[in-house]
């Protein structure tokens, strides 16, 4: 039983969907070669994108890690992930370091063209807030109640998440600040917990540190794609020094990854397979290593923008589905009280049917 | 473990050792000395490297103006200023100039109480000037020091060269540094009067500590804890190379990272840099020659020995030595002028100092990453404590083996004449107690002698230096005769001196003393051990009068005063005639002993105390050994 108002609503959305899909088909009909790409386009199955960007090291001589993470932040933001869906963790404040000859700026290139510490940087966790505990809590969603929404990773089972980490690492760990480190086992378990709590659909893990490969070796949860700047036993090196600042400004792997990302636009069809080749050994000096066995899709057909951008996909529904109204207030209320606000029909419905699980906090009411 | 627990095999081992003890001792001594000296050979030591990440040496480019004309102008101004009166130092001028630059500048007065009463005016006053450049974006919680000694023109000599280039450089750099936004630490420009004395007075005032003989006024302004200091001795002329002085008070050295930093930045400006004026051939810096040739070894050995020579004295080789007392890493950069060869002008020096300070500015914590105990065979090679300690121990192990053998030999004897009731062990211990006590008493006298003499000195009209050495000689000659009295008195058969026990006690004492000194000042311990150990180990009573005289002569040769005389001779080495050498050597010895004493009074240097209160009584114990009648 569906009341008429809701039926109308359904109809309009359905028609809208049809128009969208039709127009999409129209634009692509001319070139039949793209059919396959269109298929791939729909395969991703995610509806939203998130990014967790972590610079785990402090001190002035680690300026480059700061620049790494801010450059990547700038790129994903340009490609469409909004600040509300980026968790940026930066362990030190280079812009305000008294040693910085260019106060209030951070540059990732000695030409000093782009100030990556621009006007619109939203750092979620800074300084001593960047701890292993906070990092794991953000991933697994076990934050204290008082934590504001901007500091939470509010992802769901249809979210694609980019996790980027940089800092000083060793075989099996990444150092946080100067006091603690996250091990590869802890990280793998955190991702598994995320999977079990349906906090991601696909996850892309990217790490630029010494012996970076060791960090993804212990992963065992599905749908994870990983890339690391160096193999176990290798050092990841910095790219160049800015003699005006007197510090190394960026790491090699991140430098070449950014060079690639700079040419990516929002609708780009560049794939992850291409992205994996951005830094061959003669440029990186270390060997870039990838892990694809947990990832079910073919990386050469996986779009870069599935992780780095925020492209909204439209899905075609072939059968008519009837949506029932979920009355959130009644489900949360105590059972003994009568609901006076609902109509007779709807009250009957909710009494008969078993309660559905819902995300009252996350999905805006308008959609329901 | 079987070796230790099995009585039978243990005895066998001891017997074996006893049979060959002399050979073993000689072997270990020679092996130790050769090993130690061989550490200067390049394949046996290691290349220096910077282990403090934060320093980032040479990454930043110089921000000084390429012509830097102000430095030359200031140099001319100071030239006219100091030639106005050759007796005075230009404190007032420096104060005026720094105030004009806009930096907070202060003067600091101190007075020195002369420890000896031989001169009429015991009070000498001096004046330091210092100026603090506050880091703009930092909280004044840390500071760096650039210190320049002020020397009146008439007092300038080869060892204490003029420093006017340094004054000009400091002033010019202060002007440049003031404009920069990137200082995370305050920079203190310090100009000290009377070299080390002024520096110590200022440091005492800065840290609110007090010295007995140097009275300093309180400072009107301070900054935070001082992280590092560079003492600059630049002449007004262009320099041919930079000489680094490292040795501080009591043989303390600055952290190796600071030395490496300065060396690397000098190299970056293509300047020559040396330790103790020992120049490496240029090809070493650029080609990867292994340095295995004989001439290379000779060069690095002489450099290392020169460093050890200075370190062994325990006296600071420059103003930087006073900073070590406060756990501040510091060294002196000396500009050396030579007529021949290429020259670096003041701009090069300015760039080096700027680079050093920008690297120090990057420091996040005190220097702690690299070595504090090391020897340098060249500017880019080092011998760390882990490498030289085994060699030193091998040289000294002789002592330990010998002392154990003495004990073992004694045990054997006891076993043999166990029936003899007249020779119980406790009696022999009692017999040496008076000797130990008397030598300690004599040592106390030697240590306190100068202090006691100071009270009666004004009555005699003798020069202070002479007074000190006469007093030392008096105590020494008195001490020479003490065994005669002791041994005569103990004619009682129950108090016969057991010379083996005496020697064992003396050897244990010597081993402990040298091992302790080695931890503080390896060079001092090395030279003491190299001279004393072979003689002290081989002394024993002898029936033959000639043998006894030879032993006594050898012991006198390694006594402290004679060793000091050798040092005096060595420092006076090239002289026209032998007689000249002997006289000059004596004069130098006199001066050295006096200086050692002054260092002990003014700076609390330990060398004098180690000599009189530790080494001298030990030597006295050995001295008694040949006097004992061997038939007993």
TrEMBL record, chain A:
For region Disordered, the annotated ranges are: 326-361
State the family named in the UniProt similarity comment for this chain.
Belongs to the peptidase C13 family.
Q: Which domain of life is it from?
A: Eukaryota
Kindly give the Gene3D superfamilies that the UniProt entry links to this protein. 3.40.50.1460
Biased composition regions of type Basic and acidic residues, renumbered to the chain: 336-358
Identify the taxonomic lineage of the organism of origin.
Eukaryota, Metazoa, Spiralia, Lophotrochozoa, Mollusca
- InterPro entries reported in the protein's UniProt record: GPI_transamidase, Peptidase_C13
Listed under GO cellular component are: GPI-anchor transamidase complex
The record lists the organism as Elysia marginata
What keyword terms does UniProt attach to this protein? GPI-anchor biosynthesis, Signal
Q: Residues in the active site?
A: 168, 210
Q: Which GO terms describe its molecular function?
A: GPI-anchor transamidase activity
What residue stretch is flagged as signal peptide?
Answer: none
- UniProt protein name: GPI-anchor transamidase
Instruction: Report the pathway entry.
Output: Glycolipid biosynthesis; glycosylphosphatidylinositol-anchor biosynthesis
Q: Which GO terms describe its biological process?
A: attachment of GPI anchor to protein; GPI anchor biosynthetic process; proteolysis
From TrEMBL, chain B:
GO cellular component: a single term: GPI-anchor transamidase complex
Q: Which InterPro entries match?
A: Gaa1
Q: Record's Pfam families?
A: Gaa1
Q: What is this protein called?
A: Glycosylphosphatidylinositol anchor attachment 1 protein
The UniProt keyword set, sorted, is: Membrane, Transmembrane, Transmembrane helix
- GO biological process, any: attachment of GPI anchor to protein
Membrane-crossing segments per the record: 428-446, 467-487, 507-531, 552-573, 610-628
Superkingdom to which the source organism belongs: Eukaryota
